Amino acid sequence: MIEVKTSKLSDGEFNRGVFATRDIAKGELIHEAPVIPYPNDQHEHIEKTLLADYAFEYGINHTALLLGYGMLFNHSYTPNATYEINFPNHTFDFFAYKDIKAGEEILINYNGDEEDQEPLWFDKEKTEE
Question: What is the DSSP letter of 34?
Fold first, then answer.
């Protein structure tokens, strides 16, 4: 259903994103990404690495790194996918927020809410330059 390919949206060193290999209907489960949670007080160590840009809030007291395709979904303020934290299964579950066509890149809003237009850290950095 999904694959990793080169993304035109990602301007990082790796330029990867997650793409649909077939049409995906709104509400359909796309991926269950297992997590590696860690206490927030350990995040200062992650902040010194490239992984800081890929960490997700995981409840009140923890942060998590996602496995599988989880850390490869790129950001959009108009996403076609969303995610929910599934604490009992220790996964982030990604769902189609809109119908997604085969070949289309699957995008989430890094703010955690599909409608949240608050500028993210990388957009704030661009405006400060």
Answer: E
Residue that the structure tokens 């649909």 belong to: 20
The answer to whether residues 111 and 56 touch, using CB atoms and an 8 Å cutoff, is: no
For 19-73, the pLDDT digits (tens) are: 999 999 999 999 999 999 999 999 999 999 989 988 999 999 999 999 999 999 9
Q: How many other C-beta atoms are found inside a 10 Å radius of the C-beta of residue 12?
A: 11
CB-based contact 28:80 (threshold 8 Å): no
| Rounded (10°) CA dihedral 68, 55, 114, 82 | 20
Predicted TM-score (pTM) of this structure: 0.88
Q: Distance of CA 58 to CAs 14, 53, 71, 96, 113, Å?
A: 25, 15, 14, 21, 14
Looking at CATH, the fold of the domain delimited by 2-128 is given as Beta-clip-like (2.170.270)
**Residue 62 is encoded by which pair of tokens?**
């923890």
